Amino acid sequence: MLFHFKDKFPQLNPYWDKYLEFQERMEVPAKTILLEEGKISHHYFYVEKGCVRAALNKQGDDKTVQFFFEKEGLTSLESFLKNTPSLFTIETIEPSVIYLLHKIKVKALMTELREEPGFADVILNILAQRQMHYMNEFVSFIRDTPEERYQKILQERPHIVQRVPQHYIASYLGITRVHLSRIKSALLKKGNR
């Protein structure tokens, strides 16, 4: 189901059900590009199964920005809202089941839900959580060493290490695969995984 926050609003099931028919379900292999950097985002994506990453290309060098897993939704928000070229590519990492909802339908749904008591607060809360996540990532990238960032992943989001190929994790940390291997070796010597 596309609407990952629907459980917070069981009274709105008629709305969710109304938009079921507009969702496109896709079963795709790993390395499927859902949105290409520089293209305009016309869909909201929901990951039912699999793993997806957002990445950008810096002078031929691939940089992973974020990972998304089951029951998470995403889009290139600025592109989606402003019809501007996406700053990043959205690509599957694993074979995945993805639901898409066209932005015309997303806007129609949001217009219908605008008047529902409490709904605006939940949407703002979801957006605030996402913003805080990005701010924490930004601060960590400036403040913490790659070793500290990797240990934080191990502690807080071990599923990334279990499911994501090492070259994407290295890219996400802003280091080379060789540097990541050294970090992992050093941690093994210390007895930390």
TrEMBL record:
- This protein's source sits in the domain of life called Bacteria
For this protein, the record's InterPro entries field holds: cNMP-bd_dom, cNMP-bd_dom_sf, RmlC-like_jellyroll
In this chain the Cyclic nucleotide-binding domain maps to: 34-110
The protein's name is Cyclic nucleotide-binding protein
